[in-house]
Structure formats: C-alpha cells, structure tokens
Amino acid sequence: MLPRLPFCLLISLPVLLVQGSAANSSKKSPDAPASPVPHPPPPPQGDPTWTLGLRVYRALRSDSSAGNILFSPLLVASSLGALGEGSAGNTASQVRDLLKPPSPIKAGTQVVELLSEALKSFGEANGTSFHLRASSAVFSKQVPPVNQAFVKQSQTRFRVQHQPLGKGDTKADLKQLQDWAKAGLSGLEGAPLEAEIKAGAGALILTSAVHFKGLWEREFSEDKADRRTFLGKKYTKVVMMHRAGLYRFYEDTDNMVQVLEAPLWGGKARVVLLLPFHVENLARLEKLLTLELLSKWLEKASVTSVAISLPKANITSTLSLQKQLFALGLTDAWDQTLADFSGVSDKSKGKIHLGGVLHWASLELAAQAGKEDADLEEEHIDKPKLFYTDHPFIFFVRDSTTGALLLMGALDHAEGEAFHDEL
Ligand SMILES: *[C@@H]1O[C@H](CO)[C@@H](O)[C@H](O)[C@H]1NC(C)=O
Ligand SMILES: *[C@@H]1O[C@H](CO)[C@@H](O)[C@H](O)[C@H]1NC(C)=O
Ligand SMILES: *[C@@H]1O[C@H](CO)[C@@H](O)[C@H](O)[C@H]1NC(C)=O
C-alpha cells in the first residue's frame, strides 16, 4: 500500500521527481537518504575480498556436508593480510597469492590499503546501514617474544588484536577462543566448532567473529501468523517478509538466475541476492559462480519493479578454514619447519607456525528499515517481477563506496516447524 502523503508534499512531489530523475545527484544534501540507485561501486574483479571470498566459498561448498554458510571475506582477508605482513619468503608470497585479484587493482594501490579502506568504510556505516559487531584476533600459544611493530601494525591497519593463549591444555584453549567469539557476537552462542583445535607451542590462531543485522532502505512487511513453506534441505514453515518496490534487478535467462540488489539505509551498503529460477539446491549455481559472471550480473542489473519475498531468518556459521586455505595454496604457514614468520618474532624460526583460522558469524534477516521511510521518494511500481525466495539462495553484503565484500553466505535451510507437521 502507498503511504498517505500530506497535501503540501503532494504539491511538491513533481518537483522532487524531476530532481530525482536528473542525472546530477551531487545536489543532494549529505543527510538525504540515497536514491534507490546510488552510483555503482567498483566491480568485484579487482577486489581482494571478493577474490578470497569466492575461493573460500567454493572450497567450503565442495564439501557435500555443508549446510547454511556465512562468513566475512573482509575479516578473513584482513587477518590474513596482517599475518602476511608478519611473514617473509614463501609464506609471505603464498598469503599474497591468496589475496591477489585477477584484474590489476588501480595503479599504486596495494591490497593491504584496499583492506584498510574497506574496514574504515564499514566502520563508518555501522549504526546507519546496519548494526555490526566485528572483531579479529591473532592468538598465540607459547611463542617467543612477539615484535611490538607487528602487534601495532596488525591493530592499526587490519584491526586485528594480539591475544596470548593461557598455559592450559587444549580444552582450556578452546574455552578461551569460544568465550572470545561469544563476546564478539554480542553474547550470542556461536554454532559449535566441528574441527578439533590443537594449539601446540608456537602456534598462531587467527580468529574472527561477526554479527550483522542490516537495516533496509525501505521496510518490509510481515504477517507473523502467515507462515509459508521454505523448500530447503527440509521443508519448513517460516515467516515471509514482503515488499514491492524499485530495485536493481537482472534476470539471466540462459543461466536461470535472478539477481537482485537491495540498498540498506543511507545507501552505504547493499545486499545482493542470487536466486535460481526454480526450486533446486545451489550446486548448479555454485558451479557458475565466477568473478567475471558476478561482475557482469551486477553491471547488467537495472532499476526494475520487483515484488520481493524473503524468509525471516537467522543464519549462523562456525568455520575452521585450515583445510580450505591449505587447498587454496597456503601450505607452508602450517608447518613449523617451513613457515617463515620472522616479522612476528625474531626467534620465530622452527617454532612459530599457523595453528588454525577460525571464524564465527551470525546474521539476522529481518524486516526493519533504518528509520521511518516517510521522507523517501514515492516509488512508481509497474507490473513487478516476482523475486520469491522460498528456496535456497546465495547472498552478499557489500560496501557501496569501496565495493568490498563484508559477508557472503548461502541459505540452504530455514529454521522452522517441519512442513509435514501440518498434515
Ligand atoms: C551537477 O551539479 C553541480 C553542482 O550543483 C554542477 O557544478 C555540475 O556542473 C552539475 N553537473 C551536471 C552534469 O549537470
Ligand atoms: C558498531 O557500533 C556499535 C554500537 O556503537 C559498537 O558496539 C560496535 O563495536 C561497532 N562495530 C564496529 C565493527 O565498529
Ligand atoms: C533472530 O535472532 C534475534 C535475536 O536473537 C531474535 O530476536 C529473532 O526473533 C530471531 N529471528 C528468527 C526468525 O528466529
């Protein structure tokens, strides 16, 4: 339903519409909410967060036991970035290769600078476009004295804190790591860690924890009593949130995928959703996913009337990325005799090695917008396309300024009452 506008606003509406449609958007005051189509951010192809994100995602999903997945390519990339700065030789070049985008980054810009900028940009959007808790740390177990330059640089450039692990056994280490993650997730209990963590003497463990709740530019409506079926791994009853409006949208009919970009409040970040036309698991879509194709889809998306339905859901994921990062070429870092962490400590040789890369993430998919949306321009919706996510989809959260990828994930399964309970 359209909001009722006061009379005075109705009169000035044509003026607003004319201004809004003009190509020149620089006249807008900085406080004004962004139009539904802010200038597109740089494409994924030159960005280390997208490069790493897609690689890690594919490595994670090649494991058939995978369920819902959520992780922060930006946090993983920046903690690896910090580690890279503390390493030398082969260890350093393997980290660099992992973060190197296929297309040259704009001249004179280093990967580490892009990561720093992206962290800053997301920090600034926090509280406006979304509520974000994010922390990264490098834990160390009985290591030789750590260089203060490494500690300082990790903190200022990559927001990675150094934390020593206590003298206790494996169980005590795990407890310390889990307590740290819980604090990073605003007190939420993360999903249990499936892999075993054994931090021997000299081990460094990279950890990150992220909790995210986006605030839409325009609110969705939900009817809590009206449950719909989500056709995921199991069929479940979920609350669907609905909204018809103008969104950047593209339909790839050859690949049978819908691509939707929805802005968050203030336009500082956006959510991108990839949905197969029909009910299917994500295997087919995942085989298609490349940076080139994603860039093409985002470029082709244009403002379209779309009627969106999304399940209300919480997505959580706890990951140990050792196997995946090893398979992606980070091989020396784990091996005491091969690893070169001479930037971390002068006495690192034969001792300091990487013992784990752990990641806790949670995301709340809800209906709220950032504020009352009364002062946004009225949208003229005409024959909307249906974007009905009653089956698995892939999603991304990216920064509008730098284009960096804060979050990537897949929803295979939505928590809810089992569908057959109704029969
Ligand atoms: C956009 O607006 C600015 C400031 O109002 C002006 O300097 C500029 O020439 C305009 N550009 C176009 C393309 O109209
Ligand atoms: C976002 O803002 C909240 C509230 O001010 C704060 O607690 C949190 O640490 C901020 N997150 C980041 C990543 O800066
Ligand atoms: C998601 O988590 C939040 C906070 O813990 C809770 O308020 C909300 O009801 C949850 N949503 C669903 C769909 O379970």
Give a short summary of the structure.
This protein is 27% helix and 30% strand. With 423 residues, it is α+β, with helices and mostly antiparallel strands.
What would the keywords be for this entry?
423 residues; 10 helices; 2 domains; 5-stranded mixed beta sheet; Alpha-1-antitrypsin, domain 1; disordered N terminus; globular; binds 2-acetamido-2-deoxy-beta-D-glucopyranose
Shape: globular
Helical stretch tally: 10
Radius of gyration: 23 Å
Helix content: 25-40%
Residue-averaged pLDDT = 87
Q: Oligomeric status of the shown chains?
A: single chain
Largest sheet: 10 strands, mixed
| Strand elements, count | 15
CATH architecture field of the largest domain? 2-Layer Sandwich
Beta content comes to 25-35%
Determine the N-to-C terminus distance. Answer: 34 Å
CATH structural fold name of the largest domain: Antithrombin, Chain I, domain 2
**Overall tally of structural domains:** 2
